[in-house]
Design a protein that fits this description.
The complex is a heterodimer of chains A (257) and B (124).
Chain A: H1 3-44, H2 53-84, E1 92-94, H3 96-106, H4 108-113, E2 117-122, E3 130-132, H5 134-150, E4 157-165, E5 168-175, H6 182-185, H7 196-201, H8 209-219, E6 223-228, E7 234-241, H9 244-249
Parallel strand pairs in A: 2-4
Antiparallel strand pairs in A: 1-3, 4-5, 5-7, 6-7
Helix pairs in contact in A: 1-2, 2-8, 3-5, 5-8
Chain B: E1 3-7, H1 11-23, E2 27-31, H2 34-44, E3 48-52, H3 60-67, H4 71-75, E4 77-82, H5 89-95, E5 100-104, H6 110-122
Parallel strand pairs in B: 1-2, 1-3, 3-4, 4-5
Helix pairs in contact in B: 2-3
Classes of the chains: A alpha+beta (257), B alpha/beta (124).
Chain lengths: 257, 124
């Protein structure tokens, strides 16, 4: 087989895989979405008040795990789009402060449930807008905060810091949880990777969140990195360039499964 | 009483929306495909339409485009219920400059949908 043939075969295989993931994710979303609303209706129903606490707990567990499945499906969809290069990225001038505020609002229930305090620190200087997809930027920030919640200590703290440095916007998300070993830091941005400690600490998670973060951010010409000491928490640092033309011309690269 | 037309092919969704909307005090009309939905919209002139996107016969986007062609259809409020992504171009284009909104079903809590319905019908 010639190299061209091999490349074509590999490309076809990648396409088939991507198509399958996309199909499966859409097919899964419908029944999961239906269960979500029925479970919400059940818990909101007046008669649910009179149900024994044990039964309420059963329903809450079912709901929690249904949400977990939905979140995995969402991440799978993002990954299939990234891998096929078909991200429908509609970039626009985006106010990063507003995105962070929206992301924090979306996770506020989870924060409260886990007794975790989140502090936002925005640089007092004017933060210029960046040219990225606002929905994707929010997905990125939410993914990082969700991790900071998951791997934090009970009653822990999270800091989200926004600054400008030279020609980039910098977002730092810091937690004081279990941290990540030097060895694992090299692998955490790869698809499906989950550290032993992460699995032990919290069974939730698909190993896709940080892969999605890295793919999007690099697509904008930015970077993502981690700084962590095991047992003392982690800081994830995102940079997004302010040079609009540059961010526009860089396309999400194709990644092999 | 305000009339809401639900155009949705998944019976489980129809059943739940019928009960929830009825409980909230609305009159509910139902269609299980796009073609039937479009005909019912024209005939009954509801105050609000909940419109699924992926459907047999005629998809929700086509229904909305057809609907917007006549006087009643131009003004009627529509919530597109999708399972597509919020940045999906087709959905975004369709809802621009029209009294239409979209919600991603599996990302939206039932309570938030009900609040949105209430807010839209109260502003009349």
């Amino acid at each position: 087989m010639s190299i061209t043939d091999q490349n074509n075969a590999q490309k076809q295989l990648l396409e088939a895989q991507t198509e399958f993931v996309s199909f499966a994710s859409h097919a899964l979303r419908t029944p999961l979405g239906i269960s979500k609303w029925y479970l919400e209706a059940l818990q909101a129903d007046a008669s649910f008040e009179t149900v024994p606490e044990l039964v309420k707990d059963y329903v809450r567990e079912i709901y929690k795990n249904n949400e977990r499945l939905l979140s995995i499906v969402r991440n799978l969809l993002s990954v299939s789009r990234i891998d096929s290069g078909k991200t429908t990225d509609a970039p626009a001038l985006t106010d990063v402060k507003e995105i962070i505020n929206n992301a924090v609002k979306d996770v506020s229930v989870t924060l409260a449930k886990n007794n975790i305090q989140l502090h936002k620190q925005f640089d007092t200087i004017d933060i210029p807008q960046v040219f990225v997809s606002p929905t994707k930027l929010q997905e990125v920030v939410e993914n990082l905060i969700a991790n900071a919640i998951k791997y934090n200590n009970p009653h822990g703290q999270i800091t989200v810091l926004l600054t400008k440095k030279d020609d980039v916007i910098v977002i730092n998300v810091t937690d004081h949880g279990i941290g990540i070993s030097q060895e694992d830091q090299k692998k955490i941005f790869t698809k499906f990777f989950r550290s032993e400690k992460a699995i032990k600490k919290n069974t939730e998670g698909s190993g896709l969140g940080l892969y999605v973060v890295k793919s999007y951010v690099e697509g904008w010409g930015g970077t993502v990195s981690v700084n962590s000491i095991e047992g003392q928490g982690a800081t994830f640092t995102l940079t997004i360039p302010l040079n609009h033309k540059k961010t526009q011309s860089i396309k999400t690269k194709e990644v092999m499964i | 009483m305000k009339k809401i037309l639900v155009i949705e092919d998944e019976i489980s969704y129809v059943k739940l929306l019928r009960r929830q909307l009825t409980l909230a005090g609305y009159t509910v009309l139902e269609a299980t495909d796009g073609k039937q939905g479009l005909a019912m919209a024209k005939q009954h002139q509801p105050d609000l339409i909940l419109l699924d996107v992926r459907m047999p016969q005629m998809n929700g986007i086509t229904v909305l485009n057809e609907l917007r062609k006549d006087e009643f259809g131009k003004k009627v409020k529509v919530i597109l219920l999708t399972n597509l992504e919020p940045d999906d171009k087709t959905v975004q284009e369709v809802v621009q400059n029209q009294p239409s909104f979209y919600l991603v079903k599996s990302d939206t809590e039932l309570e938030d949908l009900m609040k949105k319905v209430k807010a839209l019908l109260q502003s009349d």
